[in-house]
Amino acid sequence: MKMYQNASSFFSLSFIVIFLSIFSPVLCIRNIGSNEPETLQTYIVRVQPPIEIADAGSNELESWYKSFLSESVSDTGEPRLLHSYSEVFSGFAAKLTQFELNSMQKKEGFVRAFPEQKLYLQTTHTPEFLGLRPASNGLWDASAFGRGVIIGLLDTGIAAGHPSFSDAGVPPPPARWKGSCALEAGCNNKLIGARAFVPGHDSPLDDSGHGTHTASTAAGNFAPGAQAYGQAGGTAAGMAPRAHLAIYKVCGTSGCASSDVLAGLDAAVKDGVDVISISLGGGSIPFDEDVIAIGAFTAFEKGIVVSCAAGNGGPFNTTLSNEAPWYITVGATSVDRSFRSYVQLNNGKVYEGESLNQSTKIPSNPVELAYNSNRSGCTYFKKFDIKGKIVVCEPFFPLEKIARAVLKAGGVGVVVVNLEAEGYSIIARDFPLPASRLSAADGDSVIAYASDARNNPKASITFNGTVLGTSPAPVVAFFSSRGPNFQTPLILKPDVSAPGLNILAAWPTQVDGGNDGANTFNIISGTSMATPHISGIAALIKSVHPDWSAAAVKSAIITTADENGRDGKPILDELHQKASFFAVGAGHVNPSKAADPGLIYDIGAEDYVGFICSVYGDAGARVIVRSHNVSCSKVTQKSATELNLPSIAASPAWLETVTITRAVTNVGEPQSSYTAHVDIPETVTIEVAPPTLSFAAVSERKTFQVRVRWSLFPANGVVEGNLRWVSNEHVVRSPVVVGNFKARN
Q: PA domain spans which residues (predicted)?
């Protein structure tokens, strides 16, 4: 999954949002009688060990895995066995020919082979924006900044010497930590482990920047003097500044191989992490074919919180990655900060845009404004004179290419207009000349003015640096992938949203031409940036509630999420329309409330096994669930609607009532009473029974039913509302979605 960023050396496709689907390389089949060697293809092979070695050590398992291979090395001398898994997956990754794979399928213990798939990569102010500062009387204070919690990052590695990974104030790792450090300079109390799982990469050092950025967002230590391009100055800190970091390099600059990702996930669970952060993915895929979902299920069983990126396929519907219900799927929003640049027209109109580089030379007087609908991409200016002019461009090409073309043709400035689908979401970029990027709506006004020669159109560009307190905020970023959940529409995804647009965090190198070689930061965007916010917040919650299950942490984050922005109005999407639950999830994360949710919706692995059986049967259950004796005939099967999730989705037929059962556990005051409040459009009727829940003790569990029916004939689309359980101290909110879903089960 790609991300959006400002270092021109990173991904060449970062200029445009694309939905990247998982793909499998085409197999080369041997021609009969040919002397050409068969092509080797990497497969992840699921096997079922004999009972006598199923719980054996990793060495014994690896020896048994090797028995499936006819050769230990390839003709080039490379090992055929790439990874041996023992914690979250029973099996191995190996390079095989098609003939060898066919032979392997006949061996006892073979379950399934997955062709390796390609996955893609998907701050000084966000702690304040999320209410974590000041520390006194806040979640940072209550959680001791996340002390004692270990966050495992599966990404591109780490810039180990960065001040964000200083261990000042960080205690030694807990005794349960079993990991190791492959850094030449060693690790410390902050960065307690670092290993590489990418073939050909012995070092876990970051060669792209993505991993450094996500790691510091989740748990970077306090780093004063942070800034990028002269913007967003201040002290940078991650969500859990005193938590420990364990780094698993599973991606290179060209992407991430699923076998390497699974190896990192396997190691993280074995090492003893509490939270796993995965800022990558590759589109919708059945859970029994998705190695992240398969590995994360075992992590869930062990109480580990896993957060994953929703994807950068927005603003289009049904573009999600990482849809499994046992982890947290994270969408991206803006914060109340702008890197302000203004476009002032000679007619007196002024439009607010954004630009990172604000130190470029600005013409002192308004200059001619040029726009040509046939040259709006701004990369080809034949018979279109822009010398000495400010050019209005639409980003059909990489912005670096646009800037070079404008400079070469003699332009003195550029106004970049968002595409219609991007709306008001502005990805701030660095330009080598005076520039401002405008929303689609404001850009249309500028285009209309510049297109009419009678206006004698002129403009100037001015800068105002970093501006805080902008509104509306948060707003869903246009690139953030949307539901419904393609695999299981009756499970609401994404789960929640967090800051992911124009986020400042650590970076391995200087990005703005300065000389500081250590204290380096960058401002980039993507659901990759949103995910570690949730990972760090989950670490804070685990620090306050170390006995909570992964499901409890997820429930707390969902039921306390904000449905309104800082202005008290509903959170908006990139078009400044009310954001649907398919765009924002339950809402925008509220860390302080999440640490004290009042009630939680807990769920165990056995419930998910029933769900897996109902969708995928015995074959799928044997792949996802590691237990060697799982049998769907002995399991109480559950539909998606029957899972005890903190969100509710229903698809009743006309004149039908759907009854949904949920159970909540009291984690608030010992003696408390909650009353049900439902708000939903009149086309749907919802009844809650009983309407009041009374608790006499902490950990007491109560069951209730939600009866859903159409009160008017259902129109196309969905109806959204909320179920709130309200006490004197807490509001526990569950998003409710009712529609004509085509569910798999």
A: 368-445
Among the three residues 116, 149, 176, which one is the final residue of a domain in this structure?
Answer: 116
Question: Tell me, what's the pLDDT at 630?
Answer: 85
**Over 403-429, what HEC string results?**
HHHHHHCCCCEEEEECCHHHCCCCCCC
210 with 297, same domain: the answer is: yes
CA distance 370 to 375: 10
Look at residues 104, 154, 453 and name the one whose alpha carbon lies nearest to residue 279: 154
Phi–psi pair at 154, nearest 5 degrees:
-100, 110
Flag whether pLDDT at 21 surpasses 60: no
Return d(Cα 468, Cα 465) in angstroms, integer: 10
Please, which pLDDT band fits residue 10 given cuts at 50, 70 and 90? very low
Portion of the chain with pLDDT greater than 70, in percent: 90
CA distance 313 to 102: 36
3-state secondary structure 587-655: CECCHHHHCCCCEECCCCHHHHHHHHHHHHHHHHHHHHCCCCCCCHHHCCCCCHHHCCCCCEEECCCCC
Mean pLDDT over 221-228 rounds to 91
| 92 and 159, same domain (yes or no) | no
pTM strictly above 0.70: yes
Whether residue 33 lies inside any domain: the answer is no
pLDDT at position 559 over 90? yes
Using DSSP bridges, classify how beta strands 110-115 and 251-252 pair: parallel, antiparallel or unpaired: unpaired
Catalytic option among 210, 244, 588, 730: 210
Residue with tokens 């159409």: 710
The answer as to whether 545 is a domain residue is yes
Contact, 511 vs 228, CB < 8 A?
Answer: yes
Look up 545 and say whether it is catalytic: no
Question: Annotated catalytic, 528?
Answer: yes
Q: Cα(633)–Cα(557) distance, rounded to whole angstroms?
A: 34
Q: Is 80 helix (H, G, I), strand (E, B) or coil?
A: coil
Q: What is the pLDDT of residue 3?
A: 47
pLDDT of residue 202: 87
- 631 part of the active site: no
Question: Which listed residue (125, 143, 155, 277) is catalytic?
Answer: 155
Residues 250 and 350 in one domain: no
| Active-site residue identified among 279, 528, 555, 672 | 528
Q: Is residue 482 part of a domain?
A: yes
Same domain, 330 and 345: no
Report the Cα 431 to chain-centroid distance in Å: 27
Reply yes or no on whether the pLDDT at 548 is more than 90. Answer: yes
Tokens representing residue 709 in the block: 């029916």
- What's residue 120's pLDDT? 76
Q: Count CB neighbours of 122 within 10 A.
A: 35
Q: How far is CA 733 from CA 326, 456, 598, 640, in A?
A: 19, 55, 11, 19
- What angle in degrees, to the nearest 10, is found between the helix axes of 258-271 and 291-301? 10
3 state SS of 244: strand
pLDDT of 14 above 70: no
Helix (H) or strand (E) holding 540: helix 527-544
Q: Are 149 and 122 in contact (CB under 8 A)?
A: no
- Partner residues linked to 44 by β-bridges: 93, 114
> What pLDDT, on a 0 to 100 scale, did the predictor assign at position 628?
65
Distance in angstroms (rounded) separating the CA atoms of residues 495 and 556: 11
Cα dihedral across residues 559, 154, 169, 189: positive or negative:
positive
Examine residue 25 and state whether it is found in any structural domain, yes or no.
no
Q: How far apart are CA 266 and CA 268, in angstroms?
A: 6
- Residue the block writes with tokens 């007491």: 700
Half-sphere exposure of 616 (CA within 13 A, CB side): 23
Q: What is the CATH number of the domain that holds 432?
A: 3.50.30.30
In a shared domain, residues 479 and 571: yes
- Name the nearest CA neighbour of 649 among 483, 524, 409, 458: 483
CA nearest 558: which of 644, 481, 640? Answer: 644
- Whether 76 shows a pLDDT value over 70: the answer reads no
